[in-house]
Amino acid sequence: MTSTIEAPRSPYSRAPRSRGVNWEKWGWIYMRVSGVVLVVLIFGHLFVNLMVGEGVSALNFAFVAGKLTTPFWMVWDVLMLWLALIHGGNGMRTLVNDYATQRLTRGILKSAILAAVVILIVLGTLVVFTFDPCPAGSPADLLPSFCPAS
Amino acid sequence: MPEQAATLTSQQKTTSRRPAGTLYRGREGMWSWVLHRITGVAIFFFLLVHILDTALVRVSPEAYNAVISSYQTPIMGLGETALVGAIVFHAFNGLRIILIDFWNAKYQKAMFYVVIALWVVTMLAFVPRHLINVFSH
Ligand code: HEM
Ligand code: HEM
């Protein structure tokens, strides 16, 4: 290997922005702050859904209905949704910046990431807050036990 | 430059083999970075699908149960094991990155082995229980 690699901590080739908000810095901080919170949220999510009781085998509509009618889990899920998607989306942006060499490709890929993140945040938030645990006309044995018999 | 290397002291040899001042080239620092990247991307794509499958609770109980029952098959059970393995590594190594940034980069190598040890312990607690849940139903 004879190729030389630039010294790792050599100054940034483009001058950093001198005015306005340093978004890269806030992104960097966000990755770390959200990461710490996500450890708790995701480990809790996995513990309750995979380890408690019969784990994954116990998951079904009635199980989700029990959680999504509990304010505690609604807040938990929405926080996890927003923090994880923005963290993951920003992480994917880093990868695009690292590997996509063409300006146009970078633009397309980053727009796709942004679109996916925004659409899924809206969808996931709506799912949690508009959830109906007892949809009319559904077979009673699929519904949680607290639904009025119909 | 092998002929020059012979005249170096042992300390110079180690420093000449690894560029100074980076955690990201070679050995533990690099491999932890590679794994952190791969696991991060894998989790991201899982999350995209996962939010869509969860959204089926707004379609109908039947639709949701049909999809979630595919999560309960042996093959998916193994996939979930891999996913949890990826998450647990990314989470512990993420905390390691944060400690490197805000506490002390000197211990990055030792902390990498702590991450591996914590990963093994967590997976020992998780995998048997999860596989029993998957394969006994
Ligand atoms: C195999 C492992 C997993 C299983 C079986 C699972 C199962 C579930 C279930 C049953 C729900 C419905 C609501 C609830 O239980 O709170 C849900 C929601 C959710 N899960 Fe998971 N999950 C898994 C892994 C993950 C991971 C790794 C993440 C984060 C990266 C995650 C993020 C979410 C989010 C954000 C929601 C809320 C979705 C929404 O708002 O519509 N899950 N998951
Ligand atoms: C479990 C808690 C988590 C912690 C503690 C954590 C921590 C971190 C940290 C500290 C970084 C480094 C950022 C940097 O180098 O500036 C990072 C990068 C990243 N994370 Fe996470 N993260 C977590 C969960 C997630 C989740 C749920 C996803 C996916 C939805 C994800 C996807 C990524 C991606 C794609 C990157 C970019 C990797 C790279 O630049 O090489 N992470 N994470």
What fraction of residues of chain A sit in β-strands? Answer: under 5%
**N- to C-terminal distance of chain A:** 75 Å
Q: What share of the residues of chain A lie within helices? A: 55-70%
Count of β-strands of chain B:
0
Largest interface pair: A-B, 47 and 44 residues
- The end-to-end distance of chain B, rounded to whole angstroms, is 63 Å
Task: Name a few traits of the molecule.
heterodimer; A: about 150 residues; mainly alpha; B: mainly alpha; about 80% helix; binds protoporphyrin IX containing FE
What does this structure look like?
The complex is a heterodimer of chains A (150) and B (137). Chain A has 150 residues and is mainly alpha-helical. Chain A contains 4 helices and no strands. Chain A has helices at 23-51, 61-68, 71-99, 103-129. In chain A, helix 1 crosses helix 3 (71-99). The model of chain A has no long low-confidence stretch (mean pLDDT 91). With 137 residues, chain B is mostly helical. Chain B has 6 helices and no strands. In chain B, helix 5 (74-102) runs antiparallel to helix 6. Chain B is elongated and about 55 Å long. The N and C termini of chain B lie far apart (63 Å). The model of chain B has no long low-confidence stretch (mean pLDDT 87). The chains are: A mainly alpha (150), B mainly alpha (137). Chains A and B meet through helix 1, helix 2, helix 3 and helix 4 of A and helix 3, helix 4, helix 5 and helix 6 of B. The structure holds protoporphyrin IX containing FE (2 copies). Chain A: Pfam families: Sdh_cyt. Chain A: It is found in: Membrane. Chain A: InterPro entries: SQR/QFR_C/D, SuccDH_FuR_B_TM-su. Chain A: Keywords: Heme, Iron, Membrane, Metal-binding, Transmembrane, Transmembrane helix. Chain A: The chain crosses the membrane at residues 29-52, 72-90, 111-131.
